[in-house]
Write a structure and sequence with these properties.
By secondary structure, this protein is of the alpha+beta class. It contains eight helices and eleven strands. It is globular.
Length: 237
């Protein structure tokens, strides 16, 4: 059973009646549950409001600060690298971008209303805690980040990833054999060779991480790792 937080008077009444142990912010509407709900129950009130693109919908924990600490670590690594003059321009730009990242702890679970009603693996029970559930319509872009300035490109149906690269000014010292495409559902694809870029078609809403060349400094490998890890937990809308 859930209680939707709208009027303050109703919220106070509910609070007096029972202490919710699960709180879920669904696209900025907050629901309090007096028992641990399953995914189908959480999605049911909103599933038919729009034509949701389930692959781009995401669930986050609001009471887990691990990714916040990872972001701080990444900023510390950037500050250390910025002490070396050869890195000043590109990494100062990245540091400014990273400061604006909003990261939470993403819950690795599929989100799909119809499937949640049919299969147990799509219908997990929520543990006690506070959550943010972002339901999304079909994205119309792909975001590139890392060794180049963050760039949004319009999504094109049936278009291989190399066609997008032709529109970008990728720095010469980027590690192009380490490019990773992060699908909106969290799946990752390493583009380790040229043939893979010709054949691979990214999903709408994908993130494409273009890493820095790790041969320049030992801390670059750590920075690449942190950026890739944080990107999966980034809240983009």
């Amino acid at each position: 059973m859930y209680y939707k937080r709208i009027p303050l008077a109703l919220f106070l009444f509910v609070s007096l009646q029972s202490a919710a142990n699960v709180t879920i912010n669904v696209n900025n509407t907050v629901y309090d549950y007096t028992s641990n709900p399953r995914m189908a129950e959480v999605l049911e009130p909103v599933a038919l409001e729009q034509s949701w693109y389930w692959n781009a919908s995401k669930l986050f924990r609001l009471d887990n600060v691990i990714q916040v600490e990872q972001k701080k670590e990444a900023l510390r690594v950037l500050s250390s690298l910025l002490e070396e003059q050869s890195f000043s321009g590109e990494l100062e730009r990245l540091k400014q971008e990273l400061r604006d990242w909003y990261v939470l702890s993403r819950v690795n679970t599929p989100i799909d209303f119809e499937l949640s009603r049919l299969m147990n693996e799509y219908n997990p029970r929520f543990e006690n805690g506070s959550y943010k559930l972002l339901l999304s319509t079909r994205p119309n872009h792909i975001l590139f980040f890392g060794a180049l300035s963050e760039t949004l490109l319009p999504y094109e149906n049936e278009t291989a990833i190399d066609e997008y690269f032709k529109q970008l000014n990728i720095p010469k010292d980027a590690y192009v054999k380490g490019i990773v495409v992060i699908a909106p559902n969290g799946d990752k694809k390493l583009l380790s060779n040229y043939l893979s870029t010709l054949a691979f078609e990214p999903m709408p809403g994908s993130l494409v991480f273009i890493p820095f060349n790790e041969s320049r400094n030992n801390n670059i490998a750590l920075l690449n790792h942190l950026l890739l890890e944080l990107s999966e937990h980034r809240v983009l809308h």
